[in-house]
Specification:
Blueprint: E1 7-10, E2 17-18, H1 20-33, H2 41-45, H3 52-61, H4 73-89, E3 96-97, H5 101-110, E4 114-122, H6 123-132, E5 141-145, H7 156-165, E6 172-176, H8 179-187, E7 191-195, E8 211-213, H9 219-222
C-alpha cells in the first residue's frame, strides 16, 4: 500500500495509547470540584482529540455543541487549571498501551523508517507518557500542542516535522485515529492511515483516509 515512504508520523491518544480512562479521571475530578456529576469514560472519549482546553470545556459543559456565552470564562479557567494540574500528576494512572504497539514500532525501526509523533496533547505531557511506556526509543522527534504551532487539523506540525528531517510530504504517512489526524494529513498533502479502534465517534472510513487498519500490527503489512 505505502511504497517508498520514509517518514511515519504518529498520533498518540487513541492511536498508541488509550489515555481516555486517565483523562476521564481528571475530567471527573474537575467536575466534582465544580459541583457537577461524574461522566462515563465512554462519554468523555467523545470529547477527545482537539487538545486539553476543548476537551475540558466540552466535558465541563457535557456537550459537543454549546453556547460560549453560557460558560463563565473565569470559572472555566479555574476548572481547566484544576484539570491540568490533576491530570499532570496522574498521566498514566489508568492509561494503557494498545496491543502490538511496541512490537510493531520495533519492527518499523528495524526496517529503517524515520518515526515521529505529533499530538494535540499539551507538549509538557508527551515525554513523561512516552517514557512511562518505554516508547521514547522509537521516536526521533515529538511535537505536542504549544503556542509555536497551530494544532491539527492545521498542517503546521506535520509540515514542520517533514522539514526537520528534510523529507517531502509525498514520502510521509500520518497514522492516527481522529478526524483531525486525517484532515491534517490532507491539508499537508500527506497520505493517511486511520486506525479504527480509537476515539473517532463514527465510521472513520467516511473521512476517506488513504487506508484503514483494525489492529496496529497491520502497519507491517501496509509498509
Amino acid at each position: 500500500m505505502f511504497k517508498n515512504k520514509k517518514l511515519i508520523i504518529f498520533d498518540m491518544d487513541g492511536t498508541l495509547l488509550d489515555s481516555a480512562p486517565s483523562l476521564a479521571y481528571a475530567v471527573n475530578y474537575m467536575r466534582k470540584q465544580a459541583g457537577k456529576e461524574e461522566l462515563s469514560v465512554e462519554r468523555i472519549r467523545q470529547f477527545i482529540g482537539n487538545g486539553s482546553a476543548i476537551l475540558a470545556k466540552k466535558a465541563y459543559a457535557n456537550s459537543h455543541e454549546f453556547d460560549e456565552s453560557e460558560i463563565d470564562e473565569a470559572e472555566f479557567e479555574r476548572a481547566h487549571k484544576i484539570f491540568l494540574d490533576f491530570y499532570g500528576k496522574n498521566l498514566n494512572a489508568k492509561t494503557k498501551i494498545y496491543p502490538n504497539v511496541t512490537e510493531t514500532l520495533q519492527e518499523l525501526k528495524k526496517r529503517g523508517y524515520i518515526t515521529s509523533l505529533v499530538t494535540n496533547k499539551p507538549h509538557q505531557f508527551v515525554l513523561p507518557m512516552l517514557e512511562y511506556f518505554n516508547l521514547t526509543q522509537f521516536f526521533q522527534n515529538y511535537l505536542g500542542a504549544s503556542e509555536k504551532f497551530n494544532k491539527k487539523p492545521a498542517p503546521d506540525m506535520l509540515l514542520h516535522t517533514c522539514k526537520i528531517f528534510n523529507i517531502s510530504p509525498k514520502d510521509t504517512v500520518m497514522v492516527g485515529d481522529s478526524k483531525n489526524d486525517i484532515l491534517a494529513a490532507k491539508n499537508a498533502n500527506i497520505d493517511s492511515l486511520a486506525v479504527s479502534y480509537g476515539y473517532f465517534n463514527g465510521n472513520i472510513k467516511d473521512l476517506n483516509p488513504t487506508a484503514v487498519c483494525k489492529d496496529f500490527k497491520q502497519l507491517l503489512e501496509l509498509f
